[in-house]
Amino acid sequence: MEKIIDENKQGESLYIEAKDGNTKKLFIESYGCQMNFSDSEIVASILTKNGFNTTQNLEDADLVLVNTCSIRDKAEQTVRKRLEKYNAIKKINPKMKVGVLGCMAERLKNKFLEEEKIVDLVVGPDAYKDLPNLIAEVEEGRNAVNVILSKEETYGDISPVRLDSNGVTAFVSITRGCDNMCTFCVVPFTRGRERSRDPQSIIEEVNDLWQKGYKEVTLLGQNVDSYLWYGGGLKKDFNKATEMQKATAVNFANLLEMCALAQPKMRFRFSTSNPQDMTLDVIETMAKYINICKYIHLPVQSGSNRILKAMNRQHTREEYFELIDNIKRIIPDCAISQDMITGFPTETEDDHQDTLSLMEYVKYDFGFMFAYSERPGTLAERKLEDDIPTDVKKRRLNDIIQLQQKHGLLRTQQHVGEIEEVLIEKESKKSNAHWAGRNTYNTVVVFPKEQYNIGDFVNVKITDCTSATLIGEAVGYSDNN
Ligand code: SAH
Ligand code: F3S
Question: Average pLDDT, stretch 250-254?
Fold first, then answer.
């Protein structure tokens, strides 16, 4: 997803108001991508209907659920450390049960119960509806595991409870799974095959969020541009659909348009776009509706054609440039961000230079950069030796981070002097006299609070910047209020 939460950070614990009649206490926290945070809201919704209220206090919990990430080894180590903490608490509160959700649950399955004695419950990303049954098993003293991946499950019929929410921005998932099989990536194994959610249920969720006062929705999927609804089922089975189903299918550009029209004052973002699946009609739809934000997260991973091929990314460097050119032609001020991996097996200094020169061409607004981490079961792990020494991976990572910071600053400087619409999300972390929000380009903007409130759309004159943040002063409400 767009922003990988720092793996060293403690996961965010999630909390909603108590529902009368529920007696058991659930502590739920999430690591990893935005999809995990969104999934935890689905889980909380299921469990509040089954006797649980959420608590922010780990010591009080009857059930602790941790939604886990497998994307890099470090992400898994962070979760294992967290389990040690639960262990210490279980000594004080022996009745507390511990469940592992998400990608690590799917990857390790029963092995989790052997490796981590603290764990009572292991539930994969497609099995959350089975949680009440599994918890009943655990309460009777048995361990419970469900890691079955599904062809159909999209949780489209579950209305997520918004956890730890600012009441202004929300995530709505539109696809699950991924069919791309990038050779470094564990996601296709942990989240299964790609399937899309019924657009009707997406629009209903969007409308409901608007009713509740939300002002911005991010549509989530591993590969949103590949969204395709033809009545249900896997994306790969679309060729088996009837002529009628094919004729009435809804693609991502259609879905974006449906959202933009359903709530014309709501802002829409989406994440993540895969270059090989992003089509011109998506960019044109973005250009057509003012409420679709001018920002695309477009991971490329490497600038070298040889490495792109070894990664099974289905495009070349030249095709990526063509896409960037098209975006800039249709939406000249569109912000673009990247994900990059340094030190993929066999990466040479020349390949690394290709990555740097690709970055020079695009001059990304933001970036999320990682050193390659070999993941068990992936094609890269089975076929390629993890042959780039850690210090080389780190040095190359440092090179691209430095370059990204330079480009980030170059991009933020372009905003200075402009008046931009900002949606206020929260108080600035650094000052309680300032608000923080984002402009359409997804850049954080900080400015003095004055008479404005969280959830207001405000025009802000940008006066200064760092490489990641804009600083300004409000000049009035925007027309969007
Ligand atoms: N399509 C997904 C990608 C999820 S993974 C999305 O919605 O964003 C997010 C990023 O993690 C990837 O783009 C990649 O840059 C990085 N990543 C994935 N597997 C990795 C690995 N084995 N080692 C290092 N980084 C990895
Ligand atoms: Fe992973 Fe590639 Fe899909 S990075 S999530 S396999 S697009």
Answer: 98
